[in-house]
Specification:
Blueprint lengths: L3 E8 L4 E9 L2 E9 L2 H11 L9 H19 L4
Antiparallel strand pairs: 1-2, 2-3
Length: about 80
């Protein structure tokens, strides 16, 4: 079955956060608030659409995405 990925948006007080809704094999997983950068979520979506990526690795890939974003913010603020 083909993987279907949709970018979701959530309006916060003064910004928009983006997430993903992933549907595959009759199951749907939602990941909200992954980033405030649309270009980053679009790149993540393209990466996950790759048919070589197994469904069992999606959580790990998203965890790495969030961790990388958090590390970038820590570095930006001289906290690492």
């Amino acid at each position: 079955m083909k993987r279907e990925i949709v970018i979701t948006e959530k309006l916060n007080e003064d910004s928009i956060s983006y997430g993903l809704k992933i549907r595959e094999n009759g199951k749907t997983k939602c990941f909200s608030g992954l980033t405030e950068r649309k270009d980053r979520i679009e790149q993540l979506k393209r990466n996950l659409e790759n048919s070589d990526i197994s469904a069992v690795h999606i959580n790990d890939i998203i965890r790495d995405f969030v961790t990388e974003d958090a590390c970038d913010r820590l570095l930006l603020n001289s906290l690492l």
